[in-house]
Each structure stands twice: as C-alpha cells, then as structure tokens.
Design brief:
The complex is a heterodimer of chains A (381) and B (312).
Chain A (H helix, E strand, L loop, with lengths): L2 H19 L1 H21 L13 E7 L4 H12 L3 E5 L2 H9 L5 E5 L3 H9 L9 E4 L6 H17 L2 H4 L22 H31 L1 H6 L5 H31 L7 H25 L3 H18 L11 H6 L4 H12 L7 H24 L6
Parallel strand pairs in A: 1-2, 1-3
Antiparallel strand pairs in A: 3-4
Chain B lengths: L2 E10 L2 E11 L4 E5 L6 H8 L7 E6 L2 E2 L11 E4 L11 H11 L4 H14 L15 H13 L5 E5 L7 H16 L3 E6 L2 H7 L2 E6 L2 E6 L1 H7 L4 E7 L5 H8 L4 E7 L2 E6 L2 H14 L4 E7 L3 H9 L7
Parallel strand pairs in B: 3-8, 3-9, 6-7, 7-8
Antiparallel strand pairs in B: 1-2, 1-4, 4-5, 9-10, 11-13, 11-14, 12-13
Helix pairs in contact in B: 2-3, 2-4, 3-4, 4-5
Classes of the chains: A mainly alpha (381), B alpha/beta (312).
C-alpha cells in the first residue's frame, strides 16, 4: 500500500471520526433536517393518503337574501371540506376579515335568487356577490371565488331553480398525475431539507479548514510528504462521504417513518445524491479558499446557502415561483438537486431523468473546485 | 543524517524574514536556534521542514536538496510545531494513528510505533483519553510523540515548551536527550537561553533573519566580550577613589555604581571577588549583600546586538 494512499485514508478517516464524534454536527446535519422536513411535509399535505385532515380555510357568509337558493348554496359551501363556514352579520364578518381571523367573507344581497335565476336565462341584470378578503393572503381571493362560483353554479342549475331537467353543465373529476405511486409532500420536503443541511455541513467543512489553518494543524499536515491533491482531495472525499451518510440516514427515516419511496430509478437517485455530495464538498473547499476570518466567512456562507436553497425550491416547490423566477433558478445548482431528487422519488421518473441534474451538479462542482484551487493559499498556515 | 541550511533567503512582501542563513546540523547533535521573537526562527524551521520554499538558497539532507509538497525527503523529518496541533476531540491513540498514517504507517508497525512513542513520552496510561482532557504539559508531550512515529532522522522542535510547567518541561528535555542519544539530528528553536544552555551542543544565534554567531556554548562565551558579574550592596556608596582602585584591579573589566549597589564585571570571579571585597573593606566599606552570576547567552546576545533577548 503506497504512502499516499495510506495518508489519504488516514485523512478521510480522521474527518469522518471527528464528524461522528461531534454531537452538535450530528444533530444539525441529521436530526434537524428530519425534524424540519417532517414539519414542512405535514404542512404541504403529508403522505397524500388522505389520512391527515386538510386544514380548512375560515370564511364568513352573510345571507341578506335568505332564499331557498342562497340557503342551498350556503349548505353546499358548508359541506365543502376546504372551508370552515361561519354565518355572520356583515359588519361582524368584515371586522373578522380585518383582524385576520377570517380569510374572506361573502355577502349575498337581498333579491339574489330572483336576479340570479333570471340572469341565467338572459332576463335582467346579474346580481353582485360581495367578496371581502384579506389582502395579505393573495391566494385566498381566487380560491374562494372559484369555490363560490362552483357551488352557486351547481345549485342554480338544478331543476327547481331554473325549470326543466337540465343537469349541471359539467362534472369536475380530480386526478393526481404522477408517474410515481402517489404524491407525498414529505418526499419534496426531505429533498429540500437534506440539501439545505448538507450544504450547511459543507460550510462547516470549509470553516474547519480555515480553523485548521489558524490553529497550525494545516501547517503540520503539510509537513508530511503529501501532495496538494492528497491533502485537498481527501478533504473533499471525506465531506462527500459524510454527505452521502447523511442522505442515507435521512432518506432511511423518510422511507420508514414518512412513507417516502424512491419510485423512480434507484441508480439515478444514487447518482444525484453523489453529484450533490460532490457539490457540497467543493462548496466547502471554495469557502476555505475564499474565506479569511472564521466569523465573517460563516455569516456570508450561511446567507449564500440560504439564498441558494430558497431559490432551489427547497422550502417551497419551484413550480410555485413566478415564471421569470423559475427560469432564473435554472442557473441555481440546488434547483437541479431538489428537482432531481423529486424526480427519482415521488415523480417516479427513469434513470434518463437523472442525467441532466447529475451533469449540471458535477459542472457546478468543477467550477467551485477550480475557484478553490485558484484562490487557495497553499503556504499560509 | 546531516541537515544543511545553505544561504537561505525568504521575503514576505517588503519584509525580509531570513537573509542568507547558513548552518549545518549533524547526527547526535542538538543544535539550538536562539533568537528573540520575530528573529526569523520559525521561517527557518518552515524552510528546513519543506513547508516553505526559500526565495534563494537551499536546504539539503545528506547533500540532497529538499523540496516542498510530496518531496520524499520530508519522510526523514519530524516537525514539532510551536502550536499544539492535535485533534482535541479524538483519543491520544487515534491522534497517533492519524499522524502515523500521514507518513504511510499502518497495521502492526503503526501499533508498535504508537506503543513506543507513548512509552517514551510517558503517556501510555492516557492513550484512551482525548487531549482536551490533558494538562498543557501532557498535550505538549503528545505533540512531540506525533512527530516521532515515523522514526525521523531529523527532528525540528519549534519552541516545544511554550506554556508548560517546570515538571513537564523537564520531561520534555529528558525525551530530547534520549532522542539525541539515539543519534538523531535535532534542531531546537527557543528564545529561552536556559533551555539552550541545558540542551544544546551548539548554538546558532539569530536576529533580524541573520546568523550572528554559530558555536558551542563555551565557544560563544569565550569569543564574545562578556564577563561574569559580581553584585555588591553597601550601606554607603563607595567613593570615587574606591571605584578607581577597583577598576584598576587585575581581571576587572567594568565597574558600575547604581545607588548603593556596585556591579563588577570580571573575567574570573574566583580571583577578582576576594580582591574587590578586601580593598573596599580596607577603605571602610562594609558589604551587606553579595551575589555573583556567571556570563550566559543573554550576555552574549547583549554583546552581539546591544539588546537583551527579552527586549529584542
């Protein structure tokens, strides 16, 4: 066994031993992503099995018409599992929306039934339903408006309101479309949080190298007959292995406790995990090359990682971003990591779908490693 | 193995840290590099250990130039850094396994060497404990042990006793003496002259990146214009006539009076001291207190630079 290989192995083993013995690092890198991912996963719909109740949106209704139609619509809205309906006087409902206790309130005006049924067959003017909503939650208005339209149309089109036997003009059939077995929001949240906390671990690896330089350990290592490749390469490999270890443990928990499945290609999942681990390792090296003081470097690095994971869709899926931002985030490596892990888990896509994310993550890693080698001050410390 | 520093130069920006330093260290010899803080000792050690490339000049081990990076010549060198460079959270044994691994040691050979260095540094019973639980002296000893695992022919010790208690310092000195007795080449940097006087066969005095002197301790004391010192305290200060008489005595080099304290520098205290006391007594000056001190490296440094080691 060559001296270089023995030294390489000793350096990698040392980094892993230090990580495993550091309880704080273990908690931050393994337990925290599991806890945060479990929280976010439950917020965004859980396992998708219908086991957990959907959070109902509190809305108010003021019925000034009190007709058969409005009573039927109110009954229908009350039965909607998306809504938590309260019948209230208009002034009180308005006050509760202002205070944020209701997301919105609907006011049916007097004479609504007469006007609405007439308007439906082309007689008279359409009545107004007043929708009062909380402007701080922009998604509420279109959601409530949509549900209201749906329930009014379903009721008004029934024979007892417009005569004849015409059925409702449409049926709405909901079907979740995914190649995977079933959408599981934990799969996305575990991908996002793994990526966030592994990048934090990458920062720690870079900061540790800065500390090693400050404390003289780096100088001591350089006194051994070892090339730069062995010294820096071993550090990158150790960080990669730790990252893979974290991903394995986190996804094991995700599978066993939260029903996450690698419904797509397992080799594809491993490829993306390895490419992202390389990215985390080279991020650490770049930080150690660019950083000067530990305190300042840590602050800037954490801020950068938070921006990266936010734009990468680790907190909320990137398809919720505005269109322009979705295009911009195609240049963000974490977006490819999150989307790649999503593709291999709940989307259930094949190996080919892992090729582009893997290649792009490796490309970014090469860039980061090149910056690290270019800027690394070999003789300092 | 012989280690030669041949006209080493090193600049950091506009600052010249080392300016043409040359010396040679031979097997079985403890060579002391003595100089104040900032004299360039650590930069010289960096070049001797292959950490820093000299701007000019070369380091040679048995005639072969030493490079940086993965130069195989570094396998012959053990470096004990000024800082304690241990993995504080890992047990002493794992630290030793790690540092042994850096030099290609593994398996039974590594285990045997770990046992040997633990024995040499009297740490065998603490092998399972982490350095963070050690005293300062024990950590220093483990730091030395880490540099000995690969049995280096040349050992560079850069101020290895900083911050340790006298007992641990003695233990470190004993370890160094054992290593020198084994025929290794040792270079020891310090700014404590007492350590050099105790340990070193030869002393290279460095200041402002230059070699001021390179000789054995006795050679340095003999060659530099330094003297042993007699300090006397009187109730009344000796008068001018008494001082003139003492200054004229054979062997007396210099006489200084500060208040009631008289300092007499002499080549040989044994002959000068009785004469000084006798003449002053004859003039009615009764000595209240007497101390003597032989010349040391501090005086040599003072004579060479006009400054003391601690002032420099």
């Amino acid at each position: 066994m060559s001296t270089a290989f023995t030294a390489f192995r000793a350096l990698v083993r040392k980094d892993i031993a230090l990580f495993v013995r550091d309880r704080r690092a273990l908690v931050v890198s393994v337990l925290t992503p599991i806890a945060v991912a479990a929280f976010f996963g439950s917020l965004f719909g859980g396992t998708g099995s219908g086991g957990s109740p959907i959070s109902r949106m509190p809305v108010g209704i003021t019925d000034l018409d009190n007709s058969a139609l409005t009573q039927a619509v109110v009954e229908s809205l009350t039965q909607d599992e998306s809504l938590d309906v309260q019948m209230l006087p208009e002034a009180q409902a308005r006050q509760l929306v202002k205070s944020g206790k209701l997301r919105a309130t609907m006011v049916f005006p007097a004479g609504f039934e007469t006007a609405a049924t007439g308007a439906l067959v082309g007689l008279g003017k359409m009545p107004d339903i007043q929708l009062l909503y909380d402007p701080s939650q922009s998604i509420v208005r279109p959601m409530v408006a949509g549900l209201l339209t749906q329930h009014v149309m379903q009721r008004i089109s029934r024979p007892n309101f417009i005569g004849g036997t015409r059925p409702a003009p449409f049926n709405l059939v909901d079907t979740a479309v995914t190649t995977g077995p079933r959408y599981n929001s934990y799969a996305h949240s575990f991908a996002g949080m793994s990526i966030q906390f592994i990048l934090f671990m990458g920062i720690d690896a870079g900061i540790t190298l800065l500390l090693m330089r400050q404390e003289g350990l780096w100088r001591r290592l350089r006194a051994a007959p070892l090339s730069r490749g062995v010294l820096v390469g071993s550090r990158a490999v150790a960080t990669m292995l730790i990252s893979m270890l974290i991903l394995t443990v986190v996804y094991l928990v995700a599978c066993l406790a939260f029903g996450v499945r690698i419904a797509g290609s397992v080799p594809g999942f491993i490829m993306i995990a390895a490419a992202f681990s390389l990215l985390a390792a080279t991020t650490g090296l770049m930080i150690s090359a660019l950083g000067r003081s530990v305190g300042a470097t840590r602050g800037v690095a954490i801020f950068s990682v938070l921006v990266l994971v936010m734009l990468g869709g680790a907190w909320v899926p990137s398809f919720l971003f505005p269109e322009w931002l979705q295009h911009v985030t195609e240049f963000v490596p974490t977006r490819w990591a999150v989307d790649g892990l999503d593709a291999m888990t709940w989307r259930g896509l094949p190996l080919q779908s892992a090729l582009a994310p893997t290649a792009i993550l490796i490309g970014w890693s090469v860039l980061f490693a090149s910056i690290a080698v270019w800027r690394f001050s070999w003789e300092d410390g | 193995m012989q280690l030669v520093a041949d006209r080493l130069h090193k600049k950091f920006g506009a600052i010249t840290a080392v300016a043409g330093v040359s010396f040679a260290a031979t097997p079985g010899e403890v060579l002391g590099l003595l100089g104040p803080n900032g004299a360039g000792k650590s930069t010289i050690i960096s070049m001797l250990s292959g950490l820093t490339k000299p701007d000019m000049g070369a380091v040679q081990i048995d005639g072969r130039p030493l490079g940086t990076g993965a130069d195989p010549g570094k396998q012959c060198i053990g470096l004990v850094t000024q800082e304690i460079t241990l993995l504080e959270d890992l047990p002493a044994r794992m630290n030793l396994e790690f540092f042994g691994g850096l030099y290609g040691l593994s398996g039974h050979k590594l285990a045997a060497r770990i046992a040997a260095v633990l024995e040499l540094t009297s740490l065998s019973d603490r092998a399972g404990d982490a350095p963070k639980e050690f005293s300062g002296g024990m950590r220093r000893r483990l730091n030395i042990a880490c540099a000995l695992l690969h049995e280096p022919h040349i050992l560079l010790l850069d101020e290895p006793t900083v911050g340790v208690d006298p007992q641990s310092r003695n233990a470190i000195f004993e370890t160094i003496e054992v290593l020198a007795g084994e025929g290794r080449t040792l270079i020891y940097t310090t700014h404590y002259m007492e350590e050099v006087e105790r340990l070193c066969d030869r002393v290279v005095i460095i200041d402002h990146g230059k070699v001021l002197a390179d000789d054995s301790l006795s050679g340095l004391l003999a060659s530099a214009p330094v003297a042993n010192k007699l300090t006397l305290r009187y109730d009344l200060p000796p008068d001018r006539a008494a001082l003139t008489e003492i200054t004229g005595l054979p062997g007396v080099i210099q006489v200084d009076l500060a208040g009631t304290q008289l300092s007499v520098s002499a080549a040989d205290l044994g002959t000068a001291a009785p004469r000084v006391l006798e003449r002053l007594a004859a003039r009615g000056f009764s000595c209240q207190e007497l101390t003597s001190r032989r010349a040391n490296l501090e005086d040599v440094f003072l004579a060479l630079t006009g400054r003391t080691l601690r002032d420099a």
